[in-house]
Amino acid sequence: MTHPGLTPEPETDPDAKFRNWMRLNLARAAEEFALTVTSSPVFGWRLRSIGARAESADGPRWLRVASSEVEWAHGPAWTGNTEANSLTGIPKPTVLASTEWTEWDWRTQRAEVMPLLNGHPCSPTDVLHEEIGLPDAWWSDLRRSVDRLAATPTDRVHADQVKVDARLRKAFGDRVVVQVEQWEAVHGDLHWANLLCPELVILDWESWGHGPAGTDAATLYCYSLLAPSTARTVREVFADVLDTPAGRTAQLCVGARLLNRAAQGDHPELVEPLTRHLDELLPR
Length: 284
Fold this sequence. Notes:
Blueprint lengths: L13 H19 L3 E2 L4 E2 L5 E8 L2 E11 L6 H8 L13 E7 L3 E9 L4 E2 L14 H15 L10 H12 L10 E4 L8 E3 L3 E2 L6 E4 L2 H8 L5 H10 L1 H4 L2 H19 L7 H11 L3
Antiparallel strand pairs: 1-3, 2-3, 3-4, 4-6, 5-6, 7-9, 8-11, 9-10
């Protein structure tokens, strides 16, 4: 079967070679689900996933393949999108079918097919670099969705105290010790590339589960710091979350995670405003 969107690129470096290999995996998944890939693929964080529009006999679909070393291809983050099917009252994709296979005892691939949703990402990157105007109904839907998720019972874990301690220690050394007192179900990666508009849809449910209360509001706020007007709107919408002891704890936890990622090369432009913001929260 020919897939118009999966033309290989010149293999000029190891990343290009890996991207072509991921294209082959997407084509394999498309054939298993009787789909035809019709758009150029989008690659996820550090090439961990690949996704593209596809056509089926029942209409347009989104096909995604995640790749992991075999020893890590398990646990909540591996099956999060499918397990999020249990969540109701939240605008999000539904996984219609999934399959897994292993390549050369080296990597395990997980393919998931979902309906193609209307709308477009609020930002091409996790960090919002320009102000965005969104209707009041969008913000209301977001707040309602975050609250509904927070009240959802689950055995899944996004981050526990051990992970929080490790992130804080890596970012701040021993000068910051935080004991999380409140926990709730969180999306865990609520950034601007995971939010669709003009009508709200929340994407990427891989890592949802219990985490520090206020994690989602804190995450969106931290990813908004380069767009001050939008950051103020986030703060207004989630004021009763962020301006509490639990909310300040969540901002420290999220900030530590983002600083650790920046140290690995992700979004260096966020480091300065994020550091200034965290300095205001750190105990004197």
